[in-house]
Amino acid sequence: MGSTPFWKKMLMLGNTTVLSLLLATLSIFSVLLLYYTQNPFLEAFEARTYDLRFRDLRGPIQPNPDIGIIAIDEKSIAELGRYPWSRDRYAPLLDRLAAAKVKAVMFDAFFPEHDTAANDKNFAAAIRRAGNVVLGTTFDFDKNGRVATVTRSLPEIERGAIGIGHINQLPDDDGVIRRNPLLIEADGKQVPSLGLMAAMLALGETKFATEDFDIALGNHDIPVDAENRMWINYVGGPGIYPRYSFVDVMNGRIPAEKLKGKILFIGATALGIYDMRVTPFSGNTPGVELHATIADDIISGRYIRQGGMEALIDMFFIVAMGAVAFFLTTRLRLYGAIPATAVLIAGYVWFTYYMFNAGQWINMIYPVISAVIAVLVGGGFRYLVLERSAREMRSMFSSYLSPKLVARLEKDPEAARIGGDNKEVTVLFTDIKGFTSFSEAHPPQEVVSRLNEYLGAMVQVIEQHDGTIDKFIGDGIMAYWGAPLAQPDHAKLAIDCIRAIHVRMEALRTQWKERGVEPFSIRGGIQSGEVVAGNVGLAGKKMEYTVIGDTVNQAARLEGSAKYYGVTYLVGEETYQMTREMCRYRELDKIRVVGKQLPVTIYEPLEGMSALDFPMAARFEAALALYRAGEWEKAQAAFSTVLDAALEDKPSRIYFERCGYFMQNPPPEDWDGVFNREEK
Asked: How far is CA 222 from the centre of its chain?
């Protein structure tokens, strides 16, 4: 035979909690490892959530009103001819913009080749006259990511510009542009992007400084990654910034006051020019609008941060979401844990959206995966192990345990250890008075029918009071409280139960009399104390959960003694002490049962369950005190008074006869008042 697997040993030892915690820890650690290694598959999903937050959650926001687009659009191409145009088209445009006193003109274009000498000269002169023009440049990279070639405007044209900005847009692997390299190093120099140049002009800054994960423009700090890339906080989809047709501006059709003080980006918006980019909002966004958005973000200080602080928050929520989801599986069944976890995930998604609006990109995918894995692992573990245990509990206890207690066992199977265990319980034995004679005098079918009617009623009452029915012994019932689940008020529950049984028996007796059938009555014994509770029998053949011990034996003998005393219930000393404030009793006797050396005091509950009312019970107790003092004549007279009022009170008759016996046969001087029961 092979060795037992570790997990089975854990289960056999009952360490399901330890094993479940181990599974939770491993699942959370696995997600942390995926986060640390930046799993490409999951990172692609997380990038999609970046788009989702813009497009479907936040939506467009108000752009900076001082930023606009001079659009090389279909209208301009229709009037001016096929693009690219001769440079004689640009000189009048720049003069119009200079006259309108725009703040800056940003060309999302470059002019690397010669036009006519006159056109080049006039264009360069117009750039110098404007004094606020920034020209574009672009870089090509080798397979190692280093700059291979640079494409820029002619030197004579560049000399008139106040700056150069690169217009590279580097998409992610899925083609969506989410970041922009604000700086690209070439020939030992760091070239700013066109958007960064526009922001510098708007903020009046002429220099920038690079730091770790940060670019400083005076008092403005721009968060970037290790490659100086900034996450683009998109304002909206195509057309979010006001567009002015190139030809309309060139021909003076746009009022100068609409352009005054603005930062204007000149670039293509016509689809035929093929300068379209994929953004979270659209798959056809003109590239010029991305440069405008970058400038807008920097000017407004509206950044998306994903740095060290955000990474710590991510890891915290990976652990927290996994732990909470796993905790839910320990408190709820799988069908309850799944919707609860869905609510948890929805709350976390809302939190990430809230933080996104505040400028922090908190990871959405990994903590959600942590929660889902926790539910799958925890739920699967509970279903395969703990729920199986719960089903075994249900199968074992449902036939003799109240539904409420069965439900508690299903939620927490470990609350009732199936192996032997010491429990503090209260045990009840009941029996039908004279059932043997009844059985002999009636047909078997009637005997079984009446017995089932009686037992069915008793089962209902006992279950309503959270009792556990151990077994039926012919016409007798054995029930207990305090096992398999601990019940601190087990004695009180038992006394409440016999009160209800008494009421139910009176109703049954009335029904039987109305039907013209012979009624019968019951008697019972109750005792509280420690027992051994657990499964007994042969595994796989015949087993039952039961309680054994001296407390059980005492309760059975109290039920038998109730016949001798002619009372309905006898209660042991331990039960009496635990319930004396909730129920009125009379002390009946001190007896020494068979097999016991120490005497026990027994009590009868009153409150309608006795032949005596409270005043007569007080007289009985006074007579009992005389009896214990050895004043036989006075005691006999006192018991006679009780019998005059309650002739059917058998305990008074017993004591009346004992007094007469002791008057004729005095007990020894060391007599302790204990009566020795010779019957079980």
From this structure: 39
